Amino acid sequence: MFLVSGPDIVIAAARAGIVGSFPTPNCRTAEELDAWMTRIVAETAGAPGLWAANLVTHSSNARLADDLALVAKHRPPVVITALGSPAPAIAAVHAYGGLVLADVTTEALGRKAAAAGADGLVAVASGAGGHTGSLSPFAFVSVLRSFFDGIVCVGGGIADGGAVAGSVAAGADLVYMGTRFLAARESMASDAYKAMVIAAGAEDLVVSPAITGTAASWLKPSLTAAGYDVGNLGAAPPRNYGGEPTAKWRDLWAAGQGLHAVTAEEPVAAIVDELERGYDAAFARLSDRRRT
After folding, report:
1. Left if phi > 0, otherwise alpha if psi is -120 to 50, otherwise beta: which for 127?
2. For residue 186, what are the domain limits?
3. pTM above the 0.90 mark?
4. Which family, according to the similarity comment (predicted)?
5. Which region, left, alpha or beta, applies to residue 147 given φ > 0 means left and ψ of -120 to 50 means alpha?
6. Burial of 133: CB neighbours in 10 Å, binned 0-12, 13-18, 19+
7. How many C-beta neighbours within 10 Å does residue 70 have?
8. For position 236, what pLDDT does the model report?
9. Half-sphere exposure of 136 (CA within 13 A, CB side)
10. What is the CATH number of the domain that holds 46?
């Protein structure tokens, strides 16, 4: 949810009973991040859900130390690490009793994150928006469960309550959902981005490392509008996740394979209600099949 999730969507998610998260690079400065976290802490107090901060722990992130200091100050209940080892965050987060979940795209990375002390592993699987993996969500959950008994979260094309139920049945504790919330009323996505998400389907996606150096799922029309040749995106550049967001990133839009479920701009609370209904219906179907 790079440049998409901010305080409004995080607060709305927590109030709706789920976990709302945002990448700390969505803030241009540490001062802005401090202000965001101050507001989120105040406005999620007593909410049925939680909030989470997503940290880029790659070595190119020059602001990581500042972001970690703010994590220690504001104490998000959950910290998610991405594009690097969870090790830099673990001591600071565990010191106040928080949980660290580590994004992983392979079994090898999952084993490394578990060895580093992560409380949970996030299986970033095929179909995920933005930086994505290549493994089937169900296969990935199974392989992580073969060696890890902590929290397992899975993301990749999960767009409705049935997919949430299927993930839980397969062994996951939690799911990542980004694409389903891109067009949420509280999202920071531009009107044009929301309109493209609503109109697009999975065939409008391309997965390539050519933009950031890491394989990511992009909306083809946004790349074309920015002057890219979608059929020849070129080689991957060096990975660099430092610095401030530029106009380039505001115009290049990511999404995952759950696009089909996004049909209108809706408030977060309405999306969560729909997901809950779908989840309950899916487990009712499973229960009926067991009886027959």
Report:
1. left
2. 7-190+256-291
3. yes
4. Belongs to the nitronate monooxygenase family. NMO class I subfamily.
5. alpha
6. buried
7. 21
8. 85
9. 6
10. 3.20.20.70
CB 48 within 8 A of CB 12: no
How many domains would you assign to the chain?
A: 1
Comparing CA positions, the residue from 182, 158, 185, 173 lying closest to residue 262 is 182
pLDDT tens digit sequence for 193-233: 999 999 999 999 999 999 888 899 999 999 999 999 999 99
User: Taking a C-beta distance cutoff of 8 angstroms, is the pair 165, 157 a contact?
Assistant: no
Question: Environment class of residue 200 by beta-carbon count within 10 Å: exposed (0-12), middle (13-18) or buried (19+)?
Answer: buried
Residues 6+ apart with CB under 8 A from 289: none
Token match 């995080």: residue?
A: 10
Residue 18 lies in a domain: yes
* Residue 238 placed within a domain: no
- For 165-201, the pLDDT digits (tens) are 999 999 999 999 999 999 999 999 999 999 999 999 9
**What's the rounded Cα separation, in Å, for the pair 157 and 135?**
12
Per the listing, tokens 């998400």 go with 197
Q: Is 122 contained in some domain?
A: yes
* Cα distance between residue 97 and residue 100, in whole Å: 10
Asked if 15 and 40 count as a contact pair (C-beta separation under 8 A), the reply is: no
Answer yes or no: is 227 within a domain.
Answer: no
- The answer to whether the CB of 218 falls within 8 A of the CB of 193 is no
User: Kind of pairing, strands 130-131 and 216-219?
Assistant: antiparallel
Tokens representing residue 240 in the block? 């660099």
SS3 content of the chain, % helix, strand, coil (to 5): 45, 15, 40
**Element spanning 103, H or E:** strand 99-104
- Specify whether the CB–CB gap between 269 and 16 falls below 8 A: yes
Closest listed residue to residue 154, CA positions, set 133, 112, 125, 113: 125
